[in-house]
């Protein structure tokens, strides 16, 4: 049966079905229409089910073919991303190490300068001012060192933050002391994980907002780039 024929017959049956059943004749007519529609639906299924089945098989095959090529590419991309993250973290570590080295140099320079000024003050007889100068903490010039990681167009990573209870007694004491609200006791896992820590839904929510600023006794906070 042609689809155009199905369309005409289906519309006709649908139009005929719009009436009130108020007497025996209408009841009998409605029964006949019900059977006619049932037969029409069987014809619709006969025409379209093979098309649907064929399309389903084609879709399934297309998905399988895509998966065949995409999964190895996805794995390769994940491997590269982890390598990029490791390199970036190492460059950050190097930059921080260099910053601390330069800061130490600047601190030594500031200390030497303060000592020279103090000696001059003593030479002019102002020993009190010299002692006051040397008693003050030395504040070296701020040092900034940029990491040497090149920028890659289109590449990005996200930092995920985590928190877990390492000392349950200390954490509960923090609740008692008011450092953590009472609902902080809700959602604590019954058992320790493989690392010997307790999970806590309250901490999971808090660390997502506070990140490294989350400082609670008995709680460990850490992050991971993905």
Automatic annotation (TrEMBL):
Protein name as it appears in the record: Uncharacterized protein
Parts forming coiled coils: 73-115
Keywords: Coiled coil
Domain of life: Bacteria
């Amino acid at each position: 049966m042609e689809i155009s024929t199905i369309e005409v017959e289906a519309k006709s049956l649908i139009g005929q079905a719009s009436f009130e059943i108020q007497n025996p004749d209408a009841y009998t007519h409605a029964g006949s229409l019900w059977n006619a529609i049932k037969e029409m639906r069987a014809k619709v299924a006969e025409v379209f089910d093979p098309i649907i089945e064929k399309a389903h098989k084609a879709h399934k095959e297309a998905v399988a073919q895509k998966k065949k090529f995409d999964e190895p590419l996805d794995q390769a991309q994940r491997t590269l991303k982890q390598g990029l993250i490791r390199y970036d973290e190492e460059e950050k570590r190097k930059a921080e190490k260099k910053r601390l080295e330069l800061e130490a140099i600047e601190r030594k320079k500031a200390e030497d300068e303060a000592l020279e000024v103090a000696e001059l003050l003593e030479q002019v007889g102002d020993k009190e001012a010299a002692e006051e100068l040397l008693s003050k903490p030395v504040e070296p010039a701020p040092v900034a060192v940029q990491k040497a990681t090149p920028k890659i167009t289109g590449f990005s990573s996200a930092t995920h933050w985590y928190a877990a209870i390492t000392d349950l007694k200390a954490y509960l004491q923090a609740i008692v002391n008011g450092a953590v609200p009472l609902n902080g006791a809700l959602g604590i896992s019954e058992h320790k994980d493989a690392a010997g820590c307790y999970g806590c839904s309250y901490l999971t929510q808090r660390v997502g907002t506070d990140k490294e600023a989350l400082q609670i006794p008995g709680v460990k906070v850490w992050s991971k780039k993905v």
